[in-house]
Structures are given as structure tokens and as C-alpha cells.
Specification:
alpha+beta, two-stranded antiparallel ribbon, 2 helices, rod-shaped, 2 strands, 67 residues
């Protein structure tokens, strides 16, 4: 499933209110535990954020100074 920032915000709001059910996309989802909600939120945030940028590679250059 592809999540949106609105879905993430809805789940955060439900967690903040202490609600066990939240509308995600076009369906109502009921979670069993707060832990389950947090795990789902982490997955959703990771997908919305997209892939991590690759770290930049640095290639050192050495310049020989005349003596």
C-alpha cells in the first residue's frame, strides 16, 4: 500500500487522542495496541520520506609542494 502524508498525519492524530481506530486512505483501520500503531506509523513515515540519499563519497587529493 502506498501511504500519503495525510495518512501519516491521521495516524499521528489518532495516537495523540488515544483512539484505536483511524481512517487511512479510504478504509477504517482498528489497531489492537499502541505498539502496533507506532510500528505502522514508522513504516508509513519511512515510505513517505522515500529512499535515503546515498552518502557523498569524498576522494582526497594530494598536491606535492615544491621543496
Amino acid at each position: 500500500m502506498s501511504w500519503t502524508q495525510e495518512d501519516v498525519d491521521a495516524l499521528k492524530g489518532a495516537i495523540g487522542k488515544g483512539a484505536a481506530s483511524v481512517k487511512i486512505g479510504d478504509e477504517m483501520v482498528t489497531f489492537r495496541t499502541l505498539s502496533e500503531m507506532r510500528q505502522t506509523l514508522a513504516m508509513m513515515e519511512a515510505e513517505v520520506a522515500g529512499p535515503a540519499r546515498p552518502s557523498a563519497q569524498v576522494y582526497p587529493q594530494f598536491v606535492r609542494r615544491p621543496q
